[in-house]
Design brief:
heterodimer, A: alpha/beta, 11 strands, B: about 270 residues, alpha+beta, five-stranded antiparallel sheet
Chain lengths: ~400, ~270
């Protein structure tokens, strides 16, 4: 073969390679990610008292509105709890369900000899022990092809945290290589204040208007208890109490450092205004209620705040890690909003508590305000100068390129 | 015959629908009540308990003892008990007047104990006995934990003193004596604004001029979240822009902070 021919044989493949590379790099970031990560799977881990089967129906209201109608609609795997409501028969009772994986070490699992029905195939209320759900999630993830993004809500975040503890502790773990992204929405990262009752919340209020604040706190906690309908006798509620044995067994462990972490939490505030006949006086105190069942808490992933929290930002802000704050505020009139109804019935739940408990970004309502079609709430995008976006838009954008989702165009 | 049957059927269906609709649309305020909260301002102890019978959390209590932490458990509610601390169990005048509103507690039980500083919990044995008068929001509760005796006793608020301060508020409002009115305000308001700021707000002329305030019926003491409040209905005479007068009804609210202090009103309404 002549020199020219040999050169041709070497140079032409090189030119083709560089040509493809140039074309690839000239594509916008999102399109590049779309092309490379078309195979990304989503694992949705739902919250307490929710049905993994109902979540699969795009006609039902819920967090599925994030991906329903998008290119991810058919790439979602719905994780079922041990004792998930999904096993409930329409005629009553439960369909057969897999036994839990009880190899939970180092995670705390409740005493199965007590009346909490921690292991009982005839219970299906999605209020099961977090430890069995974390081992279940671990086993479920191990069956999936990489890459996987976990999207979790409420108790789903605590279950995901349990999975992280297992990945850090188990030798030969491979699930860390399967999952690359964790997106949490109103997660019970450090516990919910509701099971603690009223007194700890009142005593830790940092306001001089503690007495009047406690009127609203008392009503809100009792309304949240009523609204959530959590069963005191089941393991989930005990696990989700701040400082519980569950949190003591999961939070001290580190989390994988190579994952992309995105966290959405809510902070609803109420300001109390005394009235003087026709005048309204300035606020005498502001109370933060978080999402009405979980306070913001601390972003440190190993912190254990006394009243719990929903924040979660391991290793700080970066191109692939961000916390989104959903905020709203309520002005509560002391006379009309609190004292007048309590005068009529001192043991009633005041209307201001209903308003906070039913805030569109509260724990019970956010899943109906995520996408453009449903009067969505908007948050600041993690990319600078992009403005406010719906939670749905921001999550779909993260899924396209989770490693660089918070990189502002032009930034390097 | 058929007509009669049809009428009976409609009647039955109406009853069934009424009852099912009531259960579906039941207001949580009808079915769920806020627990009573009691506090002893002399030692900082607080006690919260669900006294409404027939609820899943009836008897469930939270106790706070300063420097010791929180205790959560469920105690049996009784009509009458033999009390170890006999003088605390004697009926006082309030109890005699409102016998049906007095609830006794007596139990020895294992409760969950946790502290603010280390956030970890453990089980502990507690003996508890006492009485709660839900009409006057007064209580005496004795608690024994690990050999220590704790006593929570609520302070009684005086209705006559509340009525007197209500008259003073009316007087200072109509004479626009804002410094004197500021002195009657709850410490919660005073700590959020200075006297000067309060006077500045009250001196603004963008609010209708109140020329007379009269007490309108008997006031009422009511308990809420560990404090005693007093509500005094009043009627206001307001001068309008065309110099004519108009009557409104409102309520003055006070909080008991060792003495009665003015807290708020509600929005005046035309009677």
């Amino acid at each position: 073969m002549g020199i020219r021919k040999r050169l041709k044989a070497k140079i032409i493949p090189l030119l083709i390679f560089f040509g493809i590379a140039v074309l690839w790099l000239s594509l916008p970031l999102g399109a590049r990610a779309q092309a490379s990560e078309n195979q990304r799977q989503i694992v949705f881990v739902h919250g307490i008292k929710t049905d993994s089967r109902a979540a699969q129906n795009c006609n039902n209201p819920g967090f599925q509105s994030i991906w329903c109608g998008s290119s991810y609609e058919n790439k979602v795997n719905y994780f079922s709890y041990y004792q998930d409501i999904a096993y409930k028969k329409d005629t009553g009772g439960c369909n057969p369900q897999p036994a839990p994986d009880t190899n939970t070490d180092p995670l705390y699992a409740p005493d199965t000899s007590s009346a909490n029905r921690a292991i009982d195939p005839n219970t299906c209320d999605s209020q099961s022990a977090l430890a069995y759900n974390s081992t279940g999630l671990y086993n479920f993830l191990a069956t999936l092809p990489s890459p996987v993004a976990i999207i979790n809500h409420s108790m789903g975040a605590a279950i995901t945290r349990g999975w992280m503890t297992l990945t850090m502790e188990r030798e030969g773990d491979n699930t860390q290589n399967i999952v690359d992204t964790v997106i949490s929405i109103q997660g019970v990262q450090q516990g919910s204040f509701v099971p603690l009752g009223v007194l700890p919340f009142i005593n830790t209020l940092e306001t001089s208007a503690r007495a009047t604040s406690s009127l609203l706190v008392s009503s809100l906690i009792n309304y949240a208890k009523w609204q959530s309908g959590w069963d005191n006798n089941r393991p989930a509620l005990a696990d989700l109490t701040p400082g519980s044995e569950w949190y003591q067994s999961s939070l001290p462990y580190d989390v994988p450092s190579h994952l992309n972490y995105y966290n959405f939490y809510t902070d609803i505030k109420a300001s109390l205004h005394p009235q003087f006949f026709f005048r309204t006086l300035p606020s005498i105190g502001t109370i933060s209620f978080g999402d009405s069942v979980i306070l913001p808490g601390e972003s440190d992933h190993q912190a254990m705040p006394f009243l719990g929290g929903a924040r979660f930002l391991p290793f700080g802000e970066s191109f692939n890690r961000h916390e989104y704050t959903l905020e709203s505020s309520h002005d509560v009139l002391l006379g009309d909003g609190l004292l007048k109804p309590l005068r009529a019935n001192p043991f009633s739940i005041v209307s201001a508590a209903y308003a906070i408990g039913n805030d569109p970004i509260g724990h019970e309502k956010l899943n109906q305000h995520l996408d453009e079609d449903n009067n969505a709430f908007k948050v600041d995008s993690c990319r600078e100068n992009v403005g406010k976006k719906t939670v749905q838009r921001e999550i779909l954008r993260i899924l396209e390129d989770p490693q660089w989702a918070c990189l502002t165009p032009g930034e390097s | 015959m058929k007509k009669k049957l049809l009428l009976i059927l409609i009647f039955i269906l109406t009853i069934v629908f009424t009852f099912s609709a009531r259960s579906i649309f039941a207001d949580p305020a009808d079915t769920n009540t806020v627990p009573v909260i009691l506090q002893d301002t002399s030692n900082g102890m607080m006690f919260s308990i669900q006294l409404t019978s027939g609820q899943s959390d009836t008897g469930q209590f939270d106790l706070y003892i300063p420097q010791k932490g929180y205790y959560q458990g469920k105690v049996e509610l009784r009509e009458k008990i033999k009390c170890d601390e006999k003088e605390d169990c004697l009926e006082d005048e309030d109890d005699k007047k409102n016998k049906s509103k007095v609830i006794h507690l007596k139990d020895t039980l294992t409760v969950w104990h946790y502290q603010t500083d280390d956030n970890s919990g453990s089980e502990v044995k507690v003996k508890i006995e006492g009485k709660i008068n839900t009409f006057s929001n007064s209580a005496i509760i004795n608690i024994w934990i690990e050999g220590n005796h704790y006593r929570l006793k609520t302070k009684k608020a005086d209705q006559k003193a509340a009525e007197e301060i209500s008259i003073q508020v009316a007087q200072y409002t109509t004479t626009r004596d804002w410094p004197a009115l500021y002195d009657l305000l709850s410490a919660q308001i005073q700590s959020s604004m200075t006297q000067e700021e309060f006077i500045q707000i009250m001196s603004q002329t963008n609010s209708p001029e109140i020329i007379a305030i009269n007490l309108n019926g008997e006031g009422k003491i009511f308990p809420a979240s560990g404090n005693s409040y007093f509500a005094q209905p009043v009627s206001l005479t307001v001068r309008q822009e065309d110099s004519s007068t108009k009557l409104f009804n409102s309520t003055q609210y006070f909080i008991f902070e060792d003495t009665w202090r003015f807290l708020s009103t509600d929005t005046p309404v035309v009677p």
